[in-house]
User: Which sequence fits this backbone?
């Protein structure tokens, strides 16, 4: 609680321990609701919640039909957030995302004026589906809006609603007609979540439910203003200095150009993770601690954050493809190579 | 109307009512359509399961006549959209237009609903239109609503899309991406009629005019029947069998057979398993049977899986189609013994 004296504007009036208790209880309530509609591993839900409670955007990877949309839409319902989905296509234009100005006439005076019609990005949760099917200019339009939290058109500025999250999916790069998202733009996503096919037993459970006649109803467990307060509280969680140093050591070891980088990094990695990766691991660890009701982050919290934060930030060299080495393999070896600080 | 075996009488009664209803529909449709029994059957299964269909085939095979006759027999509103390279999303969903009140001369924006506001929509040659317009249709299909200028409008119920594709070899087409095809319950292939039936068509259509189709069901009944289909119980081993068929088609699955690993780049998603079971339920109900069999799953396997399995380059060069993959999957995956 080192910097609790200068809490950000709009911060909760409640004290930190009370807020942390609420955060923990809310997370459990959300999980309980989501379990009605999502079957299988908790990891993706945990990771998405870590990012959302910290105010970060999320990249969701995985084949079609792995309940990505259901996860995001259900989260929106239980967290009482407005939800819009944008299907990215090769002919999508920036104005299809941000909105357009149309000409309108005043009924009484006959005077004409332009009116801004908000695009789908004006929503609390925007699901950007198959973002790499759209050309760079349109991708850039979304990422710019994400970054600036506002749309500027015709000299006027329209702020986005708060909170604002983008959860993006990508189709596999091997498929034809994809425009890979540049590294700098991937970096804007706090973490990336991998969703995979379910084990057969779980798929049987899902199919029995989905083809049946009873539909689960989701209860909302919090309001959007709660989430804004949670975000502020999470920033007050303490990260011990040893862990801060560990994060920086780990992330910089992923950069092949840095002196002393492990040999496998030099061999398999084309580009490593930037400073934003370190920041996001720290923030994700704080978020994980807060969701467990703790005011200090631990090594276990950091460990949880490493793979999802680094997954989309490390570019593999051609050699890695030859030797069938994945980003997850590289991250696993990094974790082994950089010793974690001993718990005191 | 419950899945509880103790009160199974009501379910049995409902199922036989659906079976009779289907027979009456078939009788009416037969007045207009000659042959194509399999397609008519599959479309009816999709109707009663509440799923959408994709039909691939050359023009002139009575697709429009088939679907509009079904619509008439079931008293459903029917619209057709011809997809063209210059069709815009608003041409499907509708748009806001400026209207002037005659009396007050007050001008106001009013939503004029597009052709998607109907019960049955024939989306003709969907692959002739660019992706953004395709996606507008598919999104509305999925969400059963459209959003125009920030306002949301709910589509009519029941809502059923039958999209046709001309075979991809024809020029100037925008093939539907895999994830978009996944939204269709069935992919059906319509072929030319055998010569004898084509002769019958000539006789029938150049004669004194066809018999009137009379309606024998309505939209409310169909919605209730869709609910009964969902209430139909399915034995655990049958669901396991359906899930196995879909999951073994994924090359990343540890239990996928070698021919899948060699020839498939994308397997069926969980929507594949879902529609195998839902389709099997609908098929059993339409046949008047109160239980779902392995046969029901197998008979919907081609229409459910053929567009969900994407073969790789090697398969193409060796002439192996997704159809053949489905066939080999059914030969490989052992069905449960008790299922008839």
Assistant:
């Amino acid at each position: 609680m080192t910097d609790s004296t200068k809490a950000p504007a709009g911060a909760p009036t409640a004290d930190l321990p009370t807020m942390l208790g609420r955060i923990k209880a809310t997370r459990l309530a959300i999980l309980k609701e989501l379990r009605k509609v999502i079957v299988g591993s908790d990891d993706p839900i945990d990771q998405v919640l870590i990012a959302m409670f910290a105010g970060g955007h999320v990249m969701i990877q995985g084949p079609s039909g792995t309940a990505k949309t259901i996860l995001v839409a259900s989260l929106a319902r239980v967290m009482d957030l407005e939800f819009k989905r944008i299907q990215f296509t090769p002919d999508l234009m920036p104005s299809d995302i941000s909105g357009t100005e149309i000409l309108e006439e005043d009924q009484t005076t006959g005077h004409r004026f332009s009116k801004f019609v908000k695009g789908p990005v004006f929503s609390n949760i925007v699901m950007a589906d198959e973002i790499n099917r759209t050309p760079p200019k349109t991708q850039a339009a979304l990422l710019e809006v994400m970054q600036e939290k506002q749309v500027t058109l015709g000299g006027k500025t329209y702020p986005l609603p708060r909170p604002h999250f983008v959860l993006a999916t990508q189709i596999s790069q091997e498929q034809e007609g994809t425009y890979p998202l540049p590294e700098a733009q991937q970096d804007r996503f706090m973490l990336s979540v991998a969703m995979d096919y379910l084990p057969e037993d779980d798929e049987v459970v899902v199919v029995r439910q989905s083809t049946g006649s009873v539909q689960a109803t989701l209860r909302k467990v919090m309001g959007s203003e709660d989430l804004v307060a949670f975000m502020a509280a999470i920033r007050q969680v303490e990260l011990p200095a040893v862990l801060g140093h560990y994060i920086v050591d780990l992330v910089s070891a992923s950069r092949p150009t840095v002196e002393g980088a492990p040999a496998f990094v030099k061999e398999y990695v084309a580009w490593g993770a930037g400073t934003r990766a370190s920041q996001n691991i720290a923030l994700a660890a704080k978020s994980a601690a807060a969701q467990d009701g703790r005011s200090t982050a631990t090594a276990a919290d950091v460990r949880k954050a490493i793979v999802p934060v680094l997954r989309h930030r490390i570019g593999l060299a051609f050699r890695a493809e030859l030797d069938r080495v994945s980003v997850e393999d590289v991250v696993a070896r990094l974790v082994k190579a950089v010793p974690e600080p001993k718990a005191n | 109307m419950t899945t509880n075996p103790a009160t199974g009488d009501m379910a049995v009664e409902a199922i036989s009512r659906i079976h009779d209803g289907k027979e009456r529909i078939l009788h009416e449709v037969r007045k207009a359509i000659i042959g194509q029994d399999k397609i008519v059957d599959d479309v009816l299964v999709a109707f009663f399961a509440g799923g959408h269909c994709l039909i691939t085939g050359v023009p002139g095979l009575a697709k429009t006549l088939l679907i509009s006759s079904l619509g008439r027999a079931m008293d459903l509103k029917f619209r057709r959209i011809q997809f063209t390279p210059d069709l815009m999303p608003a041409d499907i969903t509708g748009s806001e237009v400026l209207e002037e009140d005659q009396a007050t001369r007050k001008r106001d924006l009013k939503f004029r609903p597009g052709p998607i506001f109907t019960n049955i929509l024939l989306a003709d040659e969907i692959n002739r239109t660019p992706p953004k317009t395709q996606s507008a249709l598919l999104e509305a299909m999925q969400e059963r609503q459209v959003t125009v200028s920030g306002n949301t409008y709910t589509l009519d119920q029941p809502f059923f899309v039958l999209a046709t594709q001309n075979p991809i070899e024809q020029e100037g087409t925008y093939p539907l991406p895999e994830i978009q095809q996944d939204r269709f319950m069935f992919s059906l292939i319509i072929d030319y009629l055998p010569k004898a039936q084509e002769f019958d068509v000539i006789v029938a259509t150049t004669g004194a005019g066809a018999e009137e189709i009379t309606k024998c069901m309505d939209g409310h009944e169909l919605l209730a029947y869709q609910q009964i289909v969902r209430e139909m119980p399915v034995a655990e081993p049958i669901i396991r069998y359906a899930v196995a068929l879909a999951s073994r088609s994924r090359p990343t699955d540890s239990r996928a057979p070698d021919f899948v690993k060699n020839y498939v780049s994308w397997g069926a998603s969980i929507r594949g398993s879902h529609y195998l079971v839902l389709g099997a339920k609908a098929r059993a109900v339409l046949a008047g049977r109160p239980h779902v069999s392995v046969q029901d799953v197998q008979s919907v396997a081609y229409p459910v899986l053929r567009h969900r399995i994407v073969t790789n380059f090697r398969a193409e060069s060796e002439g192996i189609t997704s159809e053949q993959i489905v066939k080999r999957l059914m030969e490989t995956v052992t069905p449960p013994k008790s299922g008839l």
